[in-house]
């Protein structure tokens, strides 16, 4: 059976205030064309269909059009909700839409109930695990604690229990939206840390033939059977080096997996340039970036006059301007952003405690209080999205 694995469409998202709806429409055109041209048997969409819980109307209309086109192609589609989606909104009309071959899996309670697909070699049980917010679904799964590994493990126990009731030789696919250990994040994913832990081990998915992951925006292989498709478009300059693709996955009769990357359309290349403004404007080697979306980091010791206007004269699609004056690391005037780079909210809070105490950082109990506070804020935000949905 041949699958097309994609995720993280983020319909309605912009890139540094540049609307991406046309680029997202071009991607969906490409997806439907690939389905037809490459004899795809089923499409797997591993979450974050929308960019936010209440998406703008043009994004909803684009999604509606995509569903009609996939249904017209006669190819089943299995789709789960991600942490950016409102599961309740995305799942409206799911049972009715299922009649057209579009299987929306947004309810955690249905984790152990597969979509059954069939080819010449028998059944493929396709399980959709929507994004599982640990605090909100812990009771549903009877998980021993509210953590990502605990709730995903409990959901996978349901998957394995159902699979054990299927005929011998039944192959299996799981869609999940999670941060799996070994994956490489970028700047454009929303933090899903709980209790200081965001990642779950890949072993939680043991026992199935293929795991179609969403959440991380870079296409990557955690193992031969566990893969991220990544987002079809770049949503931050941290993705400058990404090759945006989908996975074309063949699942053989014995469960063997082979996969091929299918490139997605690129609306405009990304470039990060760095140096003194005068050098950036004069360097002939940078001419290849003149049509790209550009993030420019200026290292001039003194902020230049009208830097954006001067940059856009050469690089008309400059979207981001960063100032990082060349200073020694001991310089007390080093930028605040520079000092905080690569530090988590928890670490920043602990640094603040140490600062106001004259160097005495928090003890273990105080760290636990800080961690609980950050978790409560994040869960409250998730609950607001559920209520809004």
UniProtKB/TrEMBL annotation:
CDD domains: MPP_Mre11_N (cd00840). Residues 267-355 form the Nuclease SbcCD subunit D C-terminal domain. Transmembrane segments: none annotated. SUPFAM superfamilies: Metallo-dependent phosphatases (SSF56300). The keyword DNA repair does not apply. Signal peptide: none annotated. The keyword rRNA-binding does not apply. SbcCD cleaves DNA hairpin structures. These structures can inhibit DNA replication and are intermediates in certain DNA recombination reactions. The complex acts as a 3'->5' double strand exonuclease that can open hairpins. It also has a 5' single-strand endonuclease activity. Belongs to the SbcD family. This is Nuclease SbcCD subunit D.
């Amino acid at each position: 059976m041949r699958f097309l694995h994609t995720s993280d469409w983020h319909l309605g998202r912009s890139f540094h205030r540049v609307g991406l709806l046309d680029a997202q429409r071009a991607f969906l055109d490409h997806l439907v064309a690939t389905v037809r041209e490459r004899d795809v048997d089923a499409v797997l969409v591993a979450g974050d269909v929308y960019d936010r819980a209440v998406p703008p109307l043009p994004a909803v209309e684009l999604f509606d059009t995509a569903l009609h086109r996939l249904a017209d192609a006669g190819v089943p589609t299995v789709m789960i909700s991600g942490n950016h989606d409102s599961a309740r909104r995305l799942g409206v009309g799911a049972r009715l839409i299922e009649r057209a071959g579009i299987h929306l899996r947004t309810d955690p309670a249905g984790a152990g109930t597969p979509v059954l697909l069939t080819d010449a070699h028998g059944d493929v049980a396709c399980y959709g695990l929507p994004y599982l917010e640990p605090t909100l679904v812990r009771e549903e799964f009877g998980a021993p604690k509210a953590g990502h590994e605990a709730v995903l493990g409990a959901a996978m126990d349901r998957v394995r229990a159902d699979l054990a009731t299927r005929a011998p030789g039944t192959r299996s696919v799981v869609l999940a939206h999670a941060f799996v250990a070994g994956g490489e994040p970028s700047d454009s994913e929303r933090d899903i840390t709980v209790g200081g832990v965001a990642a779950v081990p890949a072993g939680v998915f043991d026992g199935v033939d293929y795991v179609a992951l969403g959440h991380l925006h870079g296409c990557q292989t955690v193992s031969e059977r566990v893969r991220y498709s990544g987002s079809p478009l770049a949503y931050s300059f941290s993705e400058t080096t990404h090759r945006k693709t989908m996975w074309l996955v063949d699942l053989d009769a014995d469960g063997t997996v082979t996969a091929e990357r299918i490139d997605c359309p690129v609306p405009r290349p990304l470039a990060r340039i760095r140096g003194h403004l005068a050098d950036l404007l004069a360097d002939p080697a940078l001419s290849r970036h003149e049509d790209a979306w550009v993030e420019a980091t200026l290292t001039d010791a003194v902020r230049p006059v009208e830097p954006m206007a001067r940059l856009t004269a050469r690089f008309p699609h400059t979207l981001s301007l960063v100032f990082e004056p060349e200073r020694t690391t001991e310089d007390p005037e080093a930028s605040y952003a520079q000092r905080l780079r690569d530090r988590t909210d928890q670490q920043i809070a602990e640094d603040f405690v140490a600062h106001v105490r004259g160097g005495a950082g928090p003890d273990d109990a105080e760290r636990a209080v800080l961690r609980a506070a950050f978790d409560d804020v994040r869960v409250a935000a998730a609950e607001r999205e559920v209520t809004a949905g």
